[in-house]
Each structure stands twice: as structure tokens, then as C-alpha cells.
Amino acid sequence: MRALKQPSILMLSIILMSMLITNCFINVRAQSANYIVVDTGQTTFYDNSKTISLPHLGEPFYGQDAQYMGTQPSYQDNGDGTVTDLATGLMWQKSPDTNSDGMINYSDKMFFDDAEIYATSFNLAGYSDWRLPTVKELYSLIMFSGAEANPEATSTAGLVPFIDTNYFDFAFGDVSAGERTIDAQYATSTIYVSTTMTGDRTLFGVNFADGRIKGYPADRSVGKKYYVLYVRGNTAYGTNAYVDNGDGTITDNATGLMWMKNDNGAAISWENALSYAEGLEYAGYTDWRLPNAKELQSIVDYTRSPATTNSAAIDPLFNCTQIINEAGEADYPFYWSSTTFSTESPTKGESAVYVSFGKALGYMYGEWIDVHGAGAQRSDPKTGNPESFPRGRGPQGDAIRIYNYVRVVHGGVSRNASDVSTSVNTLEQLAPYIGLAILIVVTVTAVVYLKKKRTRLAH
To answer: Within a domain: residue 352?
Structure first.
């Protein structure tokens, strides 16, 4: 076999190197796409109580959820009882109609343990690798274009759930079976590492009727059943990949978001949380913002809790201010999101979403106890006096604080709503094509260079 000439070796080396660079570029993109935080779908602007027009830089309420547009939900109905989320790579069961009778009601609900067991034999659309979703997987479907249903409502007319009903079948609680309208809790495989109420084993569920994550009873003996949507694909979804940047910031390479390592250190109102984040200059960046509900929930660590790890429910790379809670215990704060929480109608905006990184307290049985678990997502009024709620609010007496903490975020795929550019991550979509372009340009350049070199040698 003839030995390769030096120009041929050089050309081959250049091509191989360009292929390696291209492959690395695409792989980095693929790895970063494992945990896409899909946008909340909130496009309405609010003040402390109602809808408003688009606020501008420097004006009150600038920096709220609708101000920024992240990766938009993108679903594909496969026509076989499944829906593919083109953003996250997850494939979902389209309907919680478990018994396939064409109706969604109490008879479709399952006990938690039964739901996990049934997943092992569940077969749909020719796939048998279905699983009960984690809370982060299921929460990827929540849409904050919805509004909380009145728990006492007997009719569902005019109600707007927190899930895209253009693609997913949905039903509220089965009132005819004695349930409340808001009893549309969906089970996840995420078990709280501590306990709630008086020592109950607890699962985290997502309620698409009232727009919350709460801890719910996991044991059959309590008698609580749940709707179920099984999922398959992208088993890496929800797994964070943190890097401490050494400058007081932490990057999550899984989501592409950069976070401030410390929180703001004080409880403030929602309006002030927005202005604090927008006005912050830190670690050389001036474009910090208040995270939306789904971004904030993405950094919850459901393997940690005040009771089991003596910490907040977050990776220990982060620092959380310690507080004294309503029960007089050492605990960790609720953190504001930029997302407004609407009740009864999407035009109402008196509350905002928070995520509890400490115990999600409620007043029950004559005392303050952890009713929903560290990692719950609930809501607080944007204004008011916490002392007006000495025993909390709602069926479980949820603690009402009104003044909560802030952890700011930077980057990711967010775009300002006033920006006419596309709202999705263009680089992410074009990465394979950019990689191919790199390969072509480098190869063509190498060929031209070698031809010119041969021409010079020939003369």
C-alpha cells in the first residue's frame, strides 16, 4: 500500500479535527437539551390585583413572567393515544381515562402504589416502557394561563385548567362521586423524604385544577386516589448539572440557567422582588431577573428537607437564609417567582406563585405542621398583612406570609417580550446545522489550501 503523501495526511487531519469539533458542538447542545424548562404560557401582565398593559423598563411590575418568553410548549398529537412534547423529548399518555370507557371520572383514579405497579405492565401505542412521572416531569406540563377553580363550585363551566386541553384530555374532580371540583390531583413517583400531617407517607402531586404542587397521602389506608398520566423517554429530564463558577453564581448546564448562589437575605413583597431582581448588578451581570414558577421549581432537590437533611430542599452548593417559621422552628423560606397566580378567572391577579424550599406549613389539628412538604408550590397574596391570617388560609390552613425571599436567575432561553425576535432558543434549534456548516467550511478551506499548495509546488 502506498504511503500517504504529506498533503493528504494534513487534509485528513484537518477533516477529522473538524468532525471532532462538530461532534462536540452537537453533543454539548444535546446534553444541554436534557432538561428544557418549558415556558409557563403566561402572556398576561398584572399589577397587585388585575391585568395591566405591558410595563416598560423602570416602571412598576416590570420583569414579571409575561415580560420574558422562554422555550414555548410544542406538542404533537401522535393520533394513537399519545402526545409528544417536542421541547422536552417526553412522550405522554394523552388521557387519564384509565379504564377506557370514554369518560374521565373517579373510576379512573388509582391509589399511588397501584399506579406504580400498573406502569410496569402498561402498554400503549406499541410501547411498554411507560413509567409514573417524577414531579419535575409532570410539572413540565403545567400552564399558568389557567385559573384556580373555586373549591365549592359545582359546575365547571368557564373554568380554565392549568394544562393544554388542545392536546391533553382533562377532567376536574368528580362531584357526583363526592369529590370537590378541584380534586384533579395527578400522582407522581416523587415521594417526600420526610412526612406530612401527622406522619403520613407523602407523594408530591400536581393539581391541574388549582395550579399547585402539594404533598398528598401515599398510603392506601388514607383512601386518596389520583389521576395518572404515564410518560416515557428522556429519562434524564429533571436531572440538574450544577457548576459553581466561583464568583457567587451557579450554572445549571442541564437547563442553561445561571443562578445567584445566595438569596437576597430578606423577606419582601412581590412587587419589590421584581424590582430587586431587575435592578441587581452582580458578578459582572446586569440582566438578572426573578425566575418564573417552572424555572424556580427546576432547582428544588426533592432528596432533601429540613427534617431529614437539616437543610433547605436545594443542592448544598446554594446558600439559603435560615428563618424561624410559624411553629417557632428553624426553617427555610418560601421564594417568589415572577408568575402571577389567578383565582377563578385569568384576569384576576391578587396572588403570585412561590416555591417552598422549607416546610410548607399549614395550621391543622390546632398547630402549625408541615402539610404539603418542602418542594411544594403554592401561592401568596401580593399585598396585605400576614397577621390577618393567624391560622393560615384554605382547607389545610396554608401559611400566608406575603413577604417572601428571592433567588435571581440569569440567561437560559428567555427573551424580553418586547423583543420581536423568536421566543425559542434559536441556537438550540440550529445547532446541528451550524455543526454541519462548520464541517463544510473547514473541509472546503482545507481542500482549497491544498490545491493552491500543489499548484505552487508544481511550478
So the answer is: yes
pTM of the model: 0.85
Residues 268 and 319 in one domain: yes
The separation between CA 256 and the C-alpha centre of its own chain, rounded to angstroms, equals: 13
**Residue 436 grid coordinates:** 454541519
DSSP code string of 29-93: HHHHGGG--B------EE-SSBEEPPP-TTSTTTT-GGGEE-BPP-EEE-SSSEEEETTT--EEE
Tell me how far apart the alpha carbons of residues 65 and 53 are, in angstroms, rounded to a whole number. 13
Residues 219, 187 share a domain: yes
pLDDT digits (tens, 9 = 90+) for 91-129: 999 999 999 999 999 999 999 999 999 999 999 999 999
Same domain, 268 and 119: no
Closest residue by Cα to residue 297 from 434, 141, 174, 456:
141
* Residues contacting 411, CB < 8 A, separation 6+: 256, 257, 258, 287
Domain count, the chain: 3
Domain that holds residue 28: 6-33+426-458
The pLDDT of residue 459 is: 53
Q: How far apart are CA 234 and CA 256, in angstroms?
A: 17
Q: Tell me the sheet residues that pair with 215.
A: 204
Residues 136 and 24 in one domain: no
Name the band, by pLDDT with cuts 50, 70 and 90, for residue 13. Answer: low
Contact 111, 221 (CB under 8 A): no
